Amino acid sequence: MFDFVSFIPRAIMQGIPLLCGSTGETLTEKSGNLNLGIPGIMYVGAISGVMGAFFYEQAVGPANISPFLAIAIPLLCCMLGSFLMGLLYCFLTVSLRANQNVTGLALTTFGVGFGNFFGGSLIKLSGSDVPAIVLSATSSYFRRTLPFASTTGWFGKIFLSYGFLAYLAVILSLVAAYILKRTRVGLHLRAVGESPNTADAAGINVGRYKYVATCTGSMIAGLGGLYYIMDYTSGIWSSDAFGDRGWLAIALVIFTVWRPNVGVLASFLFGGLYILHMYIPSGMNLAIKELYKMIPYVVTIVVLVISSLRNKRENQPPASLGLAFFREER
Amino acid sequence: MNNKAHNPLFHVSRRAALPWYRAWGIRAAALLIALLACALITNLITGLNPLAVYATIWQGSFGSARRAWVLFQNIAMLLCVSLAITPAFRMRCWNLGGDGQMLIGCLATTACMILLGGKLPNWVVILCMLVSSILAGAIWAAIPAIFKAKWNTNETLFTLMMNYVATQLVAYYIIIWEVPKGAGKIGIINQSTQAGWLPQIGSYKYLLNIIVVALVCVAMYVYLNYSKHGYEIAVVGESERTARYVGIKVERVIVRTMLLSGAVCGLAGMLLVGGTEHTLTTTITSGRGFTAVMVSWLAKFNPIWMVLTSFLLVFLERGAGQIATSFGLSSSYADILTGLILFFIIGSEFFINYQINFRHAAGKED
Questions:
Q1: Using CA atoms, how far apart are residues B8 and A258, in angstroms rounded to an integer?
Q2: Count of structural domains, chain B
Q3: For residue A110, is it within any domain?
Q4: 0.90 exceeded by the pTM?
Q5: For residue B147, which residues of chain A lie inside 8 Å, CB to CB?
Q6: Fewer CB atoms inside 10 A, N or C side of chain B?
Q7: What is the distance, to the nearest Å, from the Cα of residue A38 to the centroid of all Cα atoms in its chain?
Q8: Does residue A251 lie in a domain region?
Q9: Angle CA(B181)–CA(B186)–CA(B191) in degrees, nearest 5?
Q10: Chain A contact present for B10, CB below 8 A
């Protein structure tokens, strides 16, 4: 019998970083910026948080860490790091009107390098034998679950057994969906993404909306990286651990047809697909496992194709996605 | 003009086309500033004085004959992938699948070497490798292309996902062909018989690859600039509607160009496995498909300039790698420097396409 009680929590934990990434990217894309730098931003977010936590743990010693600072410092560092990356992206693409694809790829190269470089340096600093940083003290605060999680059986395991960042990610995506769909700010933002010229004529400050949306999106995506390190891997950073989740998060945006609320379930589904290969019985045949790992990507492709086949008007990307806005050009 | 309204400090306007030497002057200046920034950062991290930084970078690339050959081999490989994706880019079709197409070419080559090596004459094996790798790469690119042409499926993400499908496929075959069983890797293929290894020219292991890529480079330049196909690609890239209006079959151009793109990527994979590596790993392409996007874009999609830009990126990567090894830093240091330099060059494009008019200057004109 398929073990759902252990599968679902793990799928959700895999899904949370994807959820953060795709919520952030949806906000960004709604403003007309296609930010392919998300994988890099998530790395930077993760390593900034790790650096904050590492130096804090080193400064006071693991024994007398205050719970508040242990959470606040990595969180702030993470937000700051990913905010700066978002700002850089905006400066290049909005102010300097550079090509978004190339800027995004450069940002990813830089971000992944930045993460692995400082990760590697910290590993040297901590002088440990294994090539990894272990922040179990800080991580224990991030992993603190809701009360009753252990006493309510399967219900607790499936719904209550996550760290606060997981709930925050879900709330953030629901809030983002609400803002996009129901508020004036969201309407303006969508206008900027669909037709910046029209938005500009209507008196909306196109540049400001693009900046705010992209930087906010980057910070949300960065949280995904932090969650992955602090909660999913129990505070262990090792090089390239984060893998290709950033790209999957971008694909998830299309999967969810630019709706963060759909993203909540979609990301859990993707998380499940991501770890499905561990749950499919394949005996001693290791090769087949490698083929099972293909599933999330193949599903993404199928979804891409289906959504383009159906070609519904409300399921299309923002019309000016990927284009720089220059007022004097019509 | 309206004096009551807030008068901004400066306003930006589009520049008329700059003469090419000024445009490249601006890019060169950006590169210089970027190199200064890199030296400064290296200085902060390692305490090495900036001149020594450049010396180390130079050392890492040209320090010995072997290093220089490795440098040129890496340039050739990167250039080959960049050339491959360029026709698609000229068409505004963002093929991020260079990595996967190359990898699948590697896989086809490996399959021929393992399954046919020793059973057929060597030249037949090599011919099989060539044909199968080109076909494999072409098919890998054709799948997204057909969907793009027929239903306008987003090719950026489709090709991106195809990379991972290719990676897993390679991982699958590595386990099937692993030597010895349970090692999880293939090792050097046909080490004793050298079946399916591309011939060496004299004692230079890398020369054949470099020559092939140079030929591809010239051919691509001619194809893009002096052939009917190249013209059609340019028209489709500028405006699909115009292309349709003048009777170009856009769908056909898209599929054909992507086929070409994938085929050259497959060829690159063949050169990599058959010519130098003689093995297969999931990371054998080392992200060249992504770096190629930047090489191609930096050179403004011009195959001849791409020689320069790919040289620049590989040179930096090897140089930064040298800094990293001699100071015991992580090898990701190269990525940071590459990223930094790219930011500067990407930013410099603004000053080529636009000009900033300050308020007082504008006032004088009026």
A1: 36
A2: 1
A3: yes
A4: no
A5: 304-305, 308
A6: C
A7: 7
A8: yes
A9: 110
A10: no
